[in-house]
Amino acid sequence: MSDDERFQLLHGRLAIPWPGLPSPPAHWKISSGRVPGIPRLDIPDLAETDASLGIINPFGLREGDVATALPAGQALAATFNAKLAHDSGVMLGAEARAKGFNVLLGGGLNLARDFYCGRNFEYLGEDPLLAGVLAGESVRGSQSQGVIATVKHYSLNVQETLRDTLDARIDETAHRESDLLAFQIAIERGQPGAVMGAYNRINGEHASSNAHLLTSVLKQDWGYPGWVMSDWGAVHSVESFNAGLDQQSGATLDRQIWFDGPLREELAAGRVSRARLSDAVRRILRSVYAAGADRPLEESAIDYVAHAQVARAIAAQGMVLLKNDGVLPLSDAGAGPVLVVGGQAHIGVLAGYGSSMVTPVCGVAASIPVGAPSGFGQRSRQVYFASSPMEALRNALPHRQFSYDSGYFPQTTAARAAHASLVIVFATQWQGESMDADSLTLPQGQDALIAAIAQANPNTLVVLQTGNPVRMPWLKQVRAVLQAWYPGQEGGAAIADVLSGRVNPSGRLPVTFPLAESQAPRARAPGLGAPDGKSLTVNYFEGSDVGYRWYAKHGLRPLFAFGHGLSYTHFKHLGLKLALEGNTLVARFEVENIGERLGADVPQLYLVEAAGQPVRRLVGFERVELQPGERRAVQMTIDVRLLARWEGEGWSQHAGRYRFALGRSALKIGRRVGIVLPQRTLPP
């Protein structure tokens, strides 16, 4: 390869017409970005698309182009279903290739350290094992289709407020045991072709130029063979290249295309070695061929019907039944009229906002312009996918009468509610990229609306479509609460499936729901309301005690614990036993469905004591679907890093007694079972 050809691979351009920037070439398909290939060597263009929740059509500029819109990442995390994560990845990869793309800018797995982060809905919860396993499986599925998948945003992009200027401070042990462990597990499991850096700083250095993270940890300690790309507009200097950044992606959004002229000058001056240049190019090409992304891209037909079933399965399995006093599942026979209130439930379901927004196959029922605080400006819209829960309920329960009330006048709605046999309130919280929530309170007076309705009619249940946990001051006054997240293009049907009993709910919370803001490490987003560009330092003093581990350590009882979720049937866990087989710790037990319905349980194995020290850490999980009366044996192999501490140069499992317990949540755990383990050390 000539140097011109090498440098051509080291930076990409935005492939969207953007005010104030040069227009992309006319033959480029509008997309998130593109890196021109080298025809002489049969090296393909890298055609990049955002794909966290489906193949996006930026601002709808590809006229008529739709894609399967998956539920929020939190919904996928709530399934605790690794196979379903793989299936979703296969679907994403197939649609990407069929549309002419060979690089997916998806795989978000930043841990939900704070309840207010606007992009939590895209991510996979607060636990590194859960997030790492599901992200890795999704990546593995996508790359099976001949596309390159990424994991992002490496690392600690855990709030949107001042994300470009925030300096995330954390000590090495805490970082290795939490956010970095999630990335490490995902990379080991999925072997993604690329890792995308974050916008923020970590311990004083921008993620795109953080040599410790990019080179020492990722490439040396973990032996990662792929390439590191920047996020769009996240590169600040040519020094990023020597720090370990291999590609300046979407470079036209940066102040300068650093990885062209300036990098050539650094090479000529000897400040960048030719070996480093070859290493970056080799990493990119290695991933192209390892993933099969060199195969010619030919746009082809997409089986949207089959893909819709994947979206519907994630939505239904990811819904979490938080409370049920027996009102669910709903009966179709001999029951009176139902009043459906709020949430635009008569026309559709809410979607999250930002670069993960998909133009859905089902169409858009409403698109309401809303000025975002920053980032996407006037292009931000509150979007409802055309999948009406009320219409789906009518189909599922044809003998019941449904009517709709927007809830705009709460007292009038409450008066109507008093005459219904049942009221279903759809409550929403719109979240997205570039904006964080300012509290746990449902916006626009919805708490007062729910309270007024529940007072008028005690036979009230609530369906939540939110991007984050919310407070529920009305919880004791309602009969049931279903957390539906942002349920994607099949969301209306999936909600009806669960409420009617066609699907037995099996979702489990991938994040803790605090009782109040004061329980969390930070009660509000640091810097909230400050002007863009303001410097901000956030000390993540909770360290590796993220989410449920924070609550356990401080003896706090949240509103709903990580792992919580109800079913229409009942399960029993039996006979937990632990055995050390060679160097591998194995847990075995049985799960039995002791109820009267087909259903799925999600037994969670927690470490509760490590060498005499109390802890609370998820070390295994499995989704088990059982017929009534069926019993099944389950075996879990426990990753030693979940038992160990990071100590300087590697992982150390201290000698002593370790106790484990099966749990229905991080708070509700069963009998403790112990085993003595020897001292053991592992490399990074």
TrEMBL record:
Pfam families found in the cross-reference section: Fn3-like, Glyco_hydro_3, Glyco_hydro_3_C
GO molecular function annotation: hydrolase activity, hydrolyzing O-glycosyl compounds
Boundaries of every Fibronectin type III-like domain copy: 601-666
GO biological process: carbohydrate metabolic process
Keyword Transcription regulation: no
Keywords attached to this entry: Hydrolase
InterPro entries recorded: Cellulose_deg_GH3, Fn3-like, GH, Glyco_hydro_3_C, Glyco_hydro_3_C_sf, Glyco_hydro_3_N, Glyco_hydro_3_N_sf, Ig-like_fold
Sequence similarity: Belongs to the glycosyl hydrolase 3 family.
Protein's name according to its UniProt entry: Beta-glucosidase
